[in-house]
Amino acid sequence: MLNTKRHDVDICVIGGGIGGMFTAVAAARHGAKVALMHDRPVLGGNASSEILMWISGAGTRVRDLQETGLMEELLLNNMYHNPKRNFTVWDTLLYEMVRFEKNIDLMLNCACCQAEAKDGHIESVRGFQLTTYTWHEVRAKIFVDCSGDSILAPLTGAEFRVGREAKAEFGEEFGLDEADRHTMGMSIMLQCRETDHPVPYTPPAWAYIYPDDAAMHHKPHDLYAINTNFYWIELGGMQNSIDDTEEIRDELLKIAFGVWDHIKNHGDHGADNWELEWVSFLPGKRESRRYVGDYTLTQQDVEQCPSFPDIVAYGGWQIDNHLPGGFYMDAQGGAHLQKRRLSEPYGIPLRCLYSKNIDNLMFAGRNISASHIAFSSTRVMGTIGVIGQAVGTAAAIAARDGLTPRQACQERIEEIQDALMQDDCFLPGLRRRISPLSQMARLTAEYGDCSALINGIDRRIWGMDNGYFGKTNKAITYTFDRPVRVHGFRLVLDSDLNRDFVEGNPDGLNTSSVLFFPYSHNQTTFGFPRCLVKRYRVEAQGENGEWKTVFEETDNHQRLIRQPLDVVARAVRLIPLSTYFSETKTEDYGSSVAHIFNFEVY
Question: Which domains does the chain have, with CATH numbers?
Answer without folding.
Answer: 3-164+287-422 (3.50.50.60), 186-285 (no CATH), 436-495+531-601 (2.60.120.260)
